[in-house]
Amino acid sequence: MSSANAGGAPKPVTPPAPASRKSVTGTRKTVAVLFLLPALVLLGALVLYPIGYSLFRSFFDKSGDFTAFDNYETLFKDDGIRTAIKNNAIWLVVAPTVATALGLIFAVLTERVRWGTAFKLVIFMPMAISMLAAGIIFRLVYESDPDRGVANAVAVSVHDTFAESSAFPQAHPGLNSPLKSAGGGAFVTKEPVRAGSPVALPLTGVAPEQMPDGAKSAEPARAEPGRVTGTAWQDFTRGKGRGRANAPDTSEFGYSGIKIEAVRNGEVVASTEAAADGTFALPEEADGALLRLPESNFREAYNGVDWLGPTLITPAIIGSYLWMWAGFAMVLIAAGLASVPRELLEAARVDGANEWQVFRRVTVPLLAPVLAVVLVTLMINVLKIFDLVFVIPPGSSKDEANVLAVQLYNSAFGDRDSGVASAIAVLLFLLVIPVMLLNIRRMRREAQR
Description:
The chain is α+β, with helices and mostly antiparallel strands. It has 13 helices and 10 strands. The chain has helices at 29-57, 70-77, 79-110, 116-124, 131-141, 150-162, 313-338, 342-350, 355-366, 368-383, 387-391, 404-414, 418-448; strands spanning 2-4, 10-12, 179-183, 186-189, 199-203, 228-234, 259-264, 267-273, 279-282, 290-293. The strands form 3 sheets. Strands 3-4-10-7-8 form a 5-stranded antiparallel beta sheet, with no helix packed on it.
């Protein structure tokens, strides 16, 4: 800037000196440091020191001798730790992805149902339960006995709706029986049967209390001209020396509902089911044929799925995790969905897009930042999963369900090997770092928008 003097020449104007800048709080740096000091001390004591000490201790064995990288070699040589690493990889890929997908589905669907708020409350409610309590609940849910385990009770009910279970899974011919094994679990008569001559089909192996409810005392079959008749029954009477072998007694029960087939040249020519007292009758086509008790009579009763067995234990635990955390994902995604401009959705529908296209091409891209937050949060969460894996598996399946956090606990407090435990802790820390960096980059991109 300039100003005119008496002679008309411009005179330069010196700008004022800038005032000294102060911090936002108007306080000195030393005062700010004093306020931050307690938090820095706690951060160092609770975070930095444990990380540093774990890194230092990972180079020593359980007796305190320096072993360099031997503990880290153990991580990849020990079968139990390798199983834990594999299971952590499964958890990292499956659990956050499925939980986020379920949360997205629930959040979108609840906007379209009348009782959406109540539905959200029910789905989110498991978050109020501790993971230890959830583990105890699902230990009972996955109980193998259908009378106690909810999961197997449902599985058995569905199975029996479409395929009835056998009532005689342990039945078999006794000594000197007219029946012999036909292979595959079936039994067949040793000799062809004749019309007008009653046939005895004695079996044993089913306890009286396990007989069908409608079973009655076994009755000898009556001869009928032109028909093959007989009796299939439980040929066993309690008490030494009581009852007659290969002959029905009043204290013995008939095999109610057992299936009998007449087989000639490998083909079934007639079939029937026994009455409540075990008696049955076949038409004249059965004359000269062999009688067969098919294997369907003796299948083991369906008792559900072995959820807590070595094969399914990890998926079963992941299922319990989804029960808890799908509600968490749903709430966050629903909050993001509420901020999506409805004009964009309506414009897409006006342009001819169907609901699936609106969901895939409009809703999901707009929710991408929220989905990333949920996914990264759950990834960090599953890397340190402990409670469910510690509580749910029975002793026979604990090794197959093992994860790094549980292995760390077992190494530190079970094997008393703090060196290996520290190496596992360092490995977990290294696994978390990429996820944290991914989250930091995402937050920076969001801040630049």
